[in-house]
Amino acid sequence: MIKNERQYKITKAQADRFSHTLDQLELDSGQEGMLHPLIAKARRDAVRSQLADLEKELAEYEALKKGEFPMDGLNVVADLPDVLIKARIAQGLTQKELAERMGLKEQQIQKYEASDYASASFARIREVADALYRTE
């Protein structure tokens, strides 16, 4: 994800280089006598794939700069405590089992859930989500 104008300019320059490289590979496709046709195709496909990824990132950043962002996506943050608790229950985990997965005491998970994770850092919330995501 492009996060600022500097990264945007760097990504744009990279995309331009990949585009130029792809153009060269397309022009040289008949002159690749030293390369097996499948290797030449794989090389072009790899450059196309990288270029597509960069162009997607550029388009996303440009759309965001134009103000195109569904603000209702912010509800995810507000709903996160409930989602974490529901995920724990749906996986059949007790608070104690989740705590053990994370190397914490059961009381810590109880405290987080009682306060809707208000006292948890963002890093800790990610750890909880990771612990819930992995199946053991």
Question: Any overview of this molecule?
Answer:
By secondary structure, this protein is mainly alpha-helical. The protein folds into two domains: 5-69; 73-133, 434 Repressor (Amino-terminal Domain). The protein contains six helices and no strands. It has helices at residues 5-27, 37-65, 75-90, 95-102, 106-114, 122-133. α1 packs antiparallel against α2 (37-65). The two termini are 31 Å apart.
> What structural category arises from helix and sheet content?
mainly alpha
The backbone outline, from C-alpha atoms, is: elongated
Percent in strands = under 5%
Query: How many DSSP E strands?
Result: 0
Q: Can you summarize the main beta sheet?
A: none
Key features of this structure:
mainly alpha, 6 helices, 136 residues, 434 Repressor (Amino-terminal Domain), single chain, 2 domains
Task: Report a brief summary of the structure.
The chain is an all-alpha fold.
List the helices and strands and how they pair.
Layout (H helix, E strand, L loop, with lengths): L4 H23 L9 H29 L9 H16 L4 H8 L3 H9 L7 H12 L3
